[in-house]
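Intended use. Records like the one below are meant for learning the mapping from a protein sequence to its folded structure. Do not use them to infer anything beyond what is encoded.
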Amino acid sequence: MFSYFQRPLSAASWCKKIVLSLTALGAIALPLTSCSKPSAPEADTAISQPTGSNTVTILGVIVGDQQARLEEALIPFEEETGIDVIYEGTDAFTTLLPVRVDSGDSPDIAMFPQPGLMRSLAEEGVLVPATEAVSRADLQAYYPESWIDLSTVNGEVYGVWYRAAVKSLVWYNPENFAKQGYEIPTTWDELTALSDQIVADGGTPWCIGMESGNASGWPGTDWVEDILLQTAGPDFYDKWVQHEVPFNAPQVQEAFRYFGEIVKQPEYVYGGTTGALSIPWGDSIAGLFTPEPECYMQKQGNFITGFFPENVALGEDVDFFTTPSINPDYDGALLVAGDIFSMLNDTPEARQLMAYLATPTPHEIWAEQGGFLSANRQVDLNVYPDEISRKQAGLLTTAEIVQFDGSDAMPGAVGTGTFWSGMMDFVAGASAEDVTDKIEYYWPEEFEESAAERSAN
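Structure written out for the chain above:
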């Protein structure tokens, strides 16, 4: 998928004193641990006074207004410890970080936009296990095991999750559903029956937009990945992402065909296949809000809320349901995305910051103003500014089956190359077999060697 986090970030509820004003921060004398939740861990996450350089550096992908919001979330840590956090944002993160590592100029902490590069650097011995700063028991108190698994490489936990996205969502307009007497489907068969009923009633079930400039096609990868997770399960999904099974495996082709049963039926999609290929992905949600609905459903991650019309009331004019179940063995499986902090330099300051990042404090500071979700289950759901965000955060913190967006973790030539273009070819008329065979044929050889090594281990 295309990693897209664009919404205003957040100001804060760590201690209520902090959120009153930024200027009040300097007056806070309480230790950070005094404002943590009663059920939060205490032993390894307490913030101690700094030693050494009194600085810690972070390299990440967040820039602009969002960088300012992230830095705001770090203010309580700086005020309490006296440690200066120096954050550097770049849109060339995946290129720059390996160069910095190779030149001996690693940041103390990296904020990875997906776990693929994190996994690679952990396997190379570049990263320091997160458990050097936060015990596994404490991490388990903060995060569901499903999220800890996503940050585990060869039995070691290497990261602390921060900003998260949930992608297994289908959006709809409750008023439009109520007028027609439509009910929320809970299985794929019910979803298909609902789509048929909408067509029979003279409507169009779906709005789909796959146009995204040089990234066109990525919304289709999310459909296929979500369906594959629902049909083949998390173990097969993970092997597919790591190329321990071929890209063109029968289970993957089946997932393509499930998607094709929707996107390739002209009466199912607003504008037909031409519309799906040409409508910008952010514009495709608008069909839910037209006076006469152009469509009744749209599948997209939580970040689509940034493209809602200004007058749309979350939870009233729009709501969501999760991707309906296909295989009951994998009910409730979620496709997710997110940012994860990992430590490269084992310094006292870096350890203290990693411990702070695991606590609810920096999550709640960002979450309170909206446009931010966290998988940290110690975060108070009441800090989220709307019911939609609260429901989404609840999903992230309770799901037992969670898998990261596959294309983000694949080599760039595939995940942001042949997979994206292959989805456009598929919607334009190519078969699942032809598309997946082509992607498999052009899979990079160097990644093939890494997959073989992982399988051997």
